[in-house]
Amino acid sequence: MRVVALAGGVGGAKLVDGLARCVSPDRLTVIVNTGDDFRHMGLYIAPDLDTVCYTLAGMANPETGWGREGETWTVMSELARLGGPTWFRLGDRDLATHLERTRRLQEGESLSQIVSAFCRAWGIMVKVLPMSDDPVATIVITRQDEELGFQDYFVAQRCEPEVKAFRFEGVSTARPAPGVLDALSEANLVIICPSNPWVSIGPILAVPGIREMISRKPVVAVSPLIGGQALKGPAAKMFREMGWQPSPLAVAHYYSGLLQGLVIDVSDIEWAEEIRQLGIIPEITDIVMHNVQDRVRLAKEVMAFGRKIVETLTL
Amino acid sequence: MRVVALAGGVGGAKLVDGLARCVSPDRLTVIVNTGDDFRHMGLYIAPDLDTVCYTLAGMANPETGWGREGETWTVMSELARLGGPTWFRLGDRDLATHLERTRRLQEGESLSQIVSAFCRAWGIMVKVLPMSDDPVATIVITRQDEELGFQDYFVAQRCEPEVKAFRFEGVSTARPAPGVLDALSEANLVIICPSNPWVSIGPILAVPGIREMISRKPVVAVSPLIGGQALKGPAAKMFREMGWQPSPLAVAHYYSGLLQGLVIDVSDIEWAEEIRQLGIIPEITDIVMHNVQDRVRLAKEVMAFGRKIVETLTL
């Protein structure tokens, strides 16, 4: 079975790591959000691509959910001494990624070529693709109609401004990165990882051609919300501010028309029936991933659930 | 007595440090070569400015003659892993300087404003000025008429190509940085530090207006050559390839029309008479600076020698 996973940051990266450990690498493609990408100090920074790749390479920082394990902060502390910007934390190891990516972009390499080269260097066997090689920038529109770049909202303002809407700048003319539509067209199953629907999966689905291709495929998602909360990040807060009670049902609504199955946490069993009434099959399990064993267990369950759905659809 | 010192890299930085320790900071201005400056991985790198500032701040690496003391190489080793360029060694501490300088340039600050801010942050009291805020690039023209950017020649090709000429790209339209001509006009004495005449002092003198202003002042130089050799760098090799026997006499010829006095090493006493015949007063002492004590001793001797020359000229 050929699988495509859509992923954003931490939660998505963990499930992708689980999938990579139980699916043959030539049968798994990961499409990653680049709407969070931005320029900082002249460097091209791709937070979700890095989180996914660092996690797959076993180099992610398990404490922070971003950046590198065993990170050091020499550059940052010297930068602080010079009065430079320190709101976006750049670790020494992490910085090498940004420097080399920026250099290669300047030399004319595409983001997907660079990701591919980095994956080779880091020993990542599954195919990781940015959603697009063209620039797409997630803009958060606040209740006060202020437009904030995503990292400004997310890091500098700690997700505090109330959200009214999102805009994915550049997405209407962005093309799916080479390999994205092929992987989707060959896929037997699409897995939407437990990433923020509004700002991690939303931008991927907004790239012209991607949503349409996915809508022809069996799709299962894993809820990014548990008991009304996101394990990390502002997903629950965003659902609330967008007028939805944060729950797996809201997730099901968000993905309606696209999903055949939704994996929800045992603590959310109360929502199963309403999800089923939307024509989406709920699968109930423990979706919290504390460690690598959890990632593998959940990935196996998601794969089994997906297989069941594929078989049902085939019948 | 108001003093202006012209300096390039290591040797110049050492004498400047000695001068800074025995001249009142409001009476010492250092004008630094920027012809070696270049862009690498998108970063604006200013090797001579950094060597001078790191040395003045007591942060220079005494082993290498460039970069920072206690330097770490985390970024570099991760960069190597990604197949990035490693020919130009970027230490973690050093990198912060380049990142912040590049960021400020992008924001519209001038190089001299940035140097001034960095000096404040690093506790440097004497005034350090780049020769120009405008881009000037030292180009090495080889025997085979190949044109090499300075860092390509100096670092990547280890000064191996034979030199035929030098060209300072952009110098004809470069303006002295703010403060340079004022400092020179107010100076009672100009000291040419023991830096490479061809590629460290030459570019400074080539900036329109600087040589003319210096030619009206008492000037003493410290020979960058000792016993036919440079302590560091390709100065001797360059003199040879340009058709001069490398010696303090060649240095005196190089600066002819500009110098009143030249400080040479005791081991070069044989050249004293010929230097005198050029109308330049030789001062013989130990010009090797092994440690900070040597820097201070030489600086004091240079100042005393300069004072004597100023008095002679005044009489």
Automatic annotation (TrEMBL), chains A, B:
It holds the Pfam family CofD. This is 2-phospho-L-lactate transferase. HAMAP family: CofD. The gene is cofD. The lineage of its organism: Bacteria, Bacillati, Chloroflexota, Anaerolineae, Anaerolineales. One of its GO terms (molecular function) is LPPG:FO 2-phospho-L-lactate transferase activity. The keyword Magnesium applies. Its EC number is 2.7.8.28. Keywords: Magnesium, Transferase. CDD domains: CofD_like.
